[in-house]
Amino acid sequence: MDDDVVAKYDALASTYSRRYADPGAVARFYVDLVQRWGPEPPANARVLEVSCADGFMTEALARGGYRVTAFDISPKMVATARARIQAAGVEADIEVGDIRMFESDSRWDVILAPMWTFFAYVADPDPVLARLAGALAPGGKLLVDRNPRSHPVREGIDALARAGLTGVEWRPVAVPLTKRLGALGAMGLRVALAMPPVRDRLLRRRLNVVLIGRRPEIPGKE
Question: For the whole model, what pTM was predicted?
Answer without folding.
Answer: 0.92
